[in-house]
Amino acid sequence: MILLGLGSNIGDREKNIINALHLLELNFSIKIISISSLYETEPVGLKEQPPFLNIVCKIKTELQPDELLKSCLSVEKDLGRVRMVHWGPRIIDIDILFYNDEIINSEILTIPHPRITERKFVLIPLLEICRDEKIFKGCTASDWLKEVEDDSQVVLYKKVNWSDYGDQT
Prior knowledge:
Elements: E1 2-8, H1 13-27, E2 30-35, E3 38-41, E4 52-61, H2 65-78, E5 93-99, E6 104-105, E7 110-111, H3 120-130, H4 141-147, E8 154-158, H5 162-165
Antiparallel strand pairs: 1-4, 1-5, 2-4, 3-4, 3-8, 6-7
Helix pairs in contact: 1-2, 3-4
């Protein structure tokens, strides 16, 4: 199972996320299988910034993890992402959360994403699309959510379905 997390807190946040999904699917041999609802979330780390919209999507791809990362970074750049402040505001952020059962710890890529189990803004949408599926090492999103110490607010912003947005080329 390959899962991505997307977030935006600059401009039209929903449009930024949907545009990123389209660019991924259009240009980079990626098929969006399902997406969670959009959730509005408090910023993590740097608190003095606008709230984020976050979403998790399940994808299918033949790209290897490093190629998928390049595709994600390219989409971020195409949409105008500029990395200026760590954990700062961003037009789009695309993270590879899981790539099947692979474990990667390189200078440029860590899979699974190192802070998934600490962040409700990932776990709540992950639970929505994966239900009780075992995601990694026999654990489910529900398992991790029971253990998370994150007390930040994660609020349903809008229920969405990829078929409402998909194939708009």
